[in-house]
């Protein structure tokens, strides 16, 4: 028994991506969901399942009220910040594959720039009376309390172990911003950067420069999942969910898995092994990838965990435009979270869908197999999307 | 609120902060099999026992990795702030705030460098919220 091919993505929708939406987070999610359902050729009344992130501030029932939904038969949430992104699609696919629900919408909406900014110290995260709060007692009081700093600690050791340089990280930023520059939906539309710009940008958490860090954004994205049978009658060519996997590895923490013999992101290796097993594909089969890019070093480390290159070899893999449009593996053709917007990975899933449909503004020719990953440094998830 | 973010203290980590108040750097030990563990937890991963105590560390560590935080502002800290990940000779790893080391340049922190523990006593906040003195480890060059 396999999940592969048992569900399809039939609709995608989003609000504009901005720094100040001027609307509530719930309204953003309603707007994105309506857009996704319109794209799918479905009505709100067709939806009987909703899934999102535990971090989302809009409950499934609140969204259902605003959409005028009737009976909901499936609702669920996934933990661990951006690591939830692809897992929401896995939830939807599992619900559809088992007949628990017919049409499931995965959504994520927030005012992450004009409201609560994830890039700032989230003192509440250290005040939680739960195991996450206890875990954070080893870091926050000492000043290790921002996502950038927690990743910087990983990045510094990765540089030390494999001779990676800040310029190697910069290759990711340059690729993202090149792709964003030709994407009208991207916040940084028309604003490419050079490696010199990256190197000259101010230090945030050494070795991470400002241009190694994703944006903070306001907006929402929604994605509609249903069965392949139902998808046949809908207007868009269905995008097959060839694989959907979650992963957490031994001695896992949220952003601070520092206590393994070798630090790194083995949780993405867990995801990778299951993606290749479910899909029957291998890294050379992938035409383009959306790799979660809250911080550039993790894109290099993901390429290694996913099997696109060996350990420590990503620095060579990303050189000479290899991850840019026209390169051997175009990555983040929408501009990524550095270039398009930070929507906790959900905008990357939408780009994966566009690539399979052939409708991306930065279309990779004949893209038939697309890989998408979710937040790194946390328990995470991934997808392989293919044409039907 | 002034001062750094205060830790949530519960049954599974209280021994550590009770230790720092006495200027002891404690590492959880399993009373059944002796395994040392940091960060700690209620069930020994080596022998499944729930019987835990602690040892007092020598207070030395070797830099496994580090970062220098320049932005954003951190509650109760001055920037730039040097934070390291230390391998302790007892065999555990620990996040460490570092003082007295330049944030950059030739004299900046290096992987493999040895540091020793000292103590950072944070006075009551005056806010009424967990308003007691807090002592945290802070590391410096020997």
Automatic annotation (TrEMBL), chain A:
Start and end residues of each Thiolase C-terminal domain: 271-379
Superkingdom assignment: Bacteria
InterPro entries associated with the record: Thiolase, Thiolase-like, Thiolase_C_2, Thiolase_N
Residue stretches making up the Thiolase N-terminal domain: 9-227
Pfam families given in the database record: Thiolase_C_1, Thiolase_N
NCBIfam families referenced in this protein's UniProt entry, alphabetically: PRK07855.1 (NF005892)
The protein, known as: Lipid-transfer protein
Organism: Nocardioides luteus
From TrEMBL, chain B:
Residues of the ChsH2 rubredoxin-like zinc ribbon domain: 18-48
Pfam families in UniProt: OB_ChsH2_C, zf-ChsH2
Gene3D superfamilies with a match to the protein in the record: 6.10.30.10
Domain ChsH2 C-terminal OB-fold, residue spans: 55-119
Protein name as catalogued: Acyl dehydratase
Organism: Nocardioides luteus
């Amino acid at each position: 028994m396999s999940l592969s091919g048992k569900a399809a993505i039939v609709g995608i929708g989003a609000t504009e991506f901005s720094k100040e939406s001027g609307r509530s987070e719930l309204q953003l999610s309603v707007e994105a969901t309506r857009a996704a359902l319109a794209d799918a050729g479905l009505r709100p009344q067709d939806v009987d399942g909703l899934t999102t992130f535990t971090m989302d501030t809009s409950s499934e029932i609140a969204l259902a009220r605003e959409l005028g939904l009737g009976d909901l038969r499936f609702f669920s949430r996934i933990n661990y910040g951006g690591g939830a992104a692809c897992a929401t699609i896995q939830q939807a696919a599992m619900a559809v594959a088992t007949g628990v629900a017919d049409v499931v919408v995965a959504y994520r909406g927030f005012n992450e720039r004009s409201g609560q900014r994830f890039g700032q110290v989230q003192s509440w995260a250290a005040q939680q009376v739960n195991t996450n709060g206890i875990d954070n007692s080893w870091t926050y009081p000492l000043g290790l309390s921002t996502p950038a700093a927690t990743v910087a600690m990983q990045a510094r050791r990765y540089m030390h172990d494999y001779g990676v340089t800040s310029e190697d990280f910069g290759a990711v930023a340059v690729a993202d911003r090149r792709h964003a520059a030709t994407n009208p939906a991207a916040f940084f539309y028309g604003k490419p950067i050079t490696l010199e710009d990256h190197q000259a940008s101010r230090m945030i958490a050494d070795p991470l420069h400002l241009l190694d860090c994703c944006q903070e954004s306001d907006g929402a994205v929604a994605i509609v999942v249903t069965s392949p049978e139902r998808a046949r009658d809908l207007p868009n060519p269905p995008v097959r969910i060839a694989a959907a996997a979650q992963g957490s590895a031994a001695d896992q923490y949220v952003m601070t898995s520092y206590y393994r013999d070798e630090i790194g992101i083995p949780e993405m290796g867990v995801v990778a092994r299951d993606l290749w097993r479910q899909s029957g594909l291998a890294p050379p089969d992938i035409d383009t990838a959306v790799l979660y890019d809250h911080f550039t070093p993790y894109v290099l480390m993901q390429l290694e965990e996913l099997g696109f290159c060996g350990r420590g070899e990503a620095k060579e893999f990303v050189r000479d435009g290899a991850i840019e449009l026209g390169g051997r593996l175009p990555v983040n053709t929408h501009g990524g979270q550095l270039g398009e917007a930070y929507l906790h990975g959900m905008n990357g899933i939408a780009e994966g869908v566009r690539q399979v449909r052939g409708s991306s503004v930065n279309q990779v020719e004949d893209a038939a197999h697309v890989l998408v990953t979710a937040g790194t440094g946390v328990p995470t998830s991934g997808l392989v999307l293919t044409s039907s | 609120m002034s001062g750094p973010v205060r830790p949530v203290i519960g049954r599974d980590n209280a021994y550590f902060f009770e230790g720092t108040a006495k200027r002891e750097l404690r590492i959880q030990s399993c009373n059944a099999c002796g395994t040392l563990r940091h960060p700690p937890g209620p069930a020994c991963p080596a022998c499944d026992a729930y019987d835990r105590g602690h040892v007092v560390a020598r207070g030395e560590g070797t830099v496994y990795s580090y970062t220098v935080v320049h932005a954003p502002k951190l509650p109760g800290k001055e920037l730039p702030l040097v934070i390291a990940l230390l391998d302790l000779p007892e065999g555990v790893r620990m996040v460490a705030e570092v003082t007295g080391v330049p944030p950059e340049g030739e004299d900046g922190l290096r992987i493999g460098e040895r540091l020793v523990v000292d103590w950072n006593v944070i006075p009551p906040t005056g806010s009424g919220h967990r308003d007691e003195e807090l002592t945290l480890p802070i590391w410096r060059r020997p």
